[in-house]
Design brief:
The protein folds into three domains: about 5-60, Phosphorylase Kinase, domain 1; about 90-140 and about 340-355, no CATH class; about 145-330, Dimethylsulfoxide Reductase, domain 2 (3-Layer(aba) Sandwich). By secondary structure, the chain is α/β, with parallel strands linked by helices. Helix 10 packs antiparallel against helix 13, helix 10 crosses helix 14 (about 275-290) and helix 10 (about 225-235) runs parallel beside helix 15. Strands 8-7-6-9-10 form a five-stranded parallel beta sheet. The chain has helices at about 50, 55-60, 80-100, 115-120, 120-130, 140-150, 175-180, 180-195, 205-210, 225-235, 240-250, 250-260, 265-270, 275-290, 305-320, 345, and strands at about 5-10, 20-25, 30-35, 70, 80, 170, 200, 215, 290-295, 330.
Length: about 350
């Protein structure tokens, strides 16, 4: 008898801003294919190369399907059953709590490939236990999130689908062709319909950089200087949106008076390693665009003063007024667009406060 293949609509759990809708083909309880959902507008029927091979990964004979107990040097271990592993973990935790209290436990868990809700389940367990609480995002996105929040508030950025209304796209530290493929697809499609310049600012010559109309190979750690240099030129050339600044921003008068004079193009070129002509071109293209969208990456925040760098870049649409235009503004993360009760799984019970690490 011929086996029946059923299609199951699922959501991709990779830590990726695209958040794709997928169709999993299942035969006899076994996933045989994963592909993009053709009925979902943003996913548009295709998935990235990684997800397209998820069926091979799940069914691989090399996949580790049972717990491994370390028996010697790192990398060594023996397979044990799930019951054995859970019993041993529970016994050790109980002994530690009995001897030293729950604060002696520190769980290290973060997002993995679990989605926005499930990623909080493990830390929810530690929260309920009253153990020490790890701010695991400090190695990933805590800095960029806090920088964004204190600059524009704890709100989402520009709608990525609004890029179809943009007349300039700046990929600042984000390899869109590799890590935001559906946004990149929208950009490529729009470029076929009308002029849509793409500027890539990145220390690495990525796939996105190779396809850019202007590529700026900035020196690592100098993003803030470039952003302030662009602001300097916007003010100098009368391209700052004074109406938007007066009605929707705070503190630009001090920035203009005390900070921007320190970042003329020649100085910025010395700091960033970019040519003065390219810095001038970037500022001119940005300042004269009607709806420029900046797609921010997180990499600039993973070094000293990185949060300040992201803050400087995120301020640019406030100077130009692009935050007030459809297709303009900036986008860092898409998670804020999902209004979910995360605490239901991250803080199900347990003490309100505990030691933070």
């Amino acid at each position: 008898m011929e086996s029946l293949v059923t299609s199951v609509r699922v959501v991709c759990a990779h830590d990726c801003p695209d958040m794709c809708s997928l169709i999993a083909s299942v035969e006899d309880g076994r996933i045989v294919r994963v592909q993009g959902d053709t009925d979902h507008p943003y996913t548009a029927g295709f998935a990235c190369g990684k997800v397209n091979r998820d069926a091979d990964l799940v069914n691989s004979p090399e996949r580790i399907a049972t717990p491994l107990k370390r028996t010697g040097p790192k990398g060594s271990g023996q397979s044990i059953s799930w019951d054995e592993a859970l019993d041993e973990i529970a016994a050790k935790w109980k002994a530690i709590i009995a001897e030293s209290g729950p604060l002696a436990l520190l769980g290290y868990a973060y997002s993995a490939h679990q989605g926005l809700m499930n990623r909080g389940l493990v830390n929810g367990l530690f929260h309920a236990l009253g153990s020490s609480r790890l701010q695991a995002g400090t190695v990933c996105d805590t800095c960029c999130e806090e920088a964004w929040n204190v600059t524009v508030g704890p709100v989402g950025g520009a709608d990525p689908e609004d890029v179809v209304h943009s007349d300039l796209v700046i990929s600042w530290g984000a390899d869109l062709a590799a890590t935001n493929v559906h946004y990149w697809s929208l950009v490529e499609h729009a470029k076929k319909q009308r002029p849509l310049p793409v500027i890539v600012i990145d220390p690495r010559r990525t796939r996105s950089a190779k396809a850019a109309d202007l590529y700026l190979p900035i020196r690592i750690g100098t993003d803030a200087a470039l952003a302030l240099g662009v602001m300097h030129i916007l003010v100098r050339d009368g391209l700052a949106n004074r109406d938007y600044l007066s009605r929707h921003t705070l503190g630009f008068d001090r920035v203009e008076k005390d900070i921007l004079p320190k970042f003329p193009p020649a100085k910025v070129a010395e700091i960033t390693g970019l040519a003065v002509a390219d810095i001038e071109k970037l500022a001119s293209m940005y300042g004269r665009a009607k709806a420029a969208m900046i797609r921010l990456g997180e990499g600039m925040t993973r070094l000293a003063a990185g949060g300040q760098a992201l803050r400087a870049v995120a301020l640019l649409p406030g100077v130009s007024g692009h935050y007030g235009v459809k297709g303009g503004g900036s986008l860092l993360l898409t998670a804020a667009s999902c209004d979910l009760n995360y605490n239901a799984v991250r803080k199900p019970s347990g003490p309100a406060t505990a030691r933070l690490a």
